[in-house]
Amino acid sequence: MKLVSATELQNNFGKYLKEVQNGEEIMILKNGKNVARLISEKTRVEFLSDSLAGILSGEVNLDEEREKALREKYGLTD
What we know:
Strand content: 15-25%
Largest sheet: 3 strands, mixed
CATH superfamily: YefM-like domain
Radius of gyration: 18 Å
Strand order of the largest sheet: 1-2-3
Number of strands: 3
């Protein structure tokens, strides 16, 4: 993954767009902090399908995750 400032990306957008088309991922920085990631459409689809496959294969218990999130949100303890 390549790190690029927002200004650099703006000044050379065509160059970075071509790199993304060739499979490169670009992390966009603003004031030194990650703010966005530029990825190809194909990569986006693969990322989403891989995430969904993880959920469907049982790697995640949605009920447990929901309960955990609610406990954290409302400061509840056992």
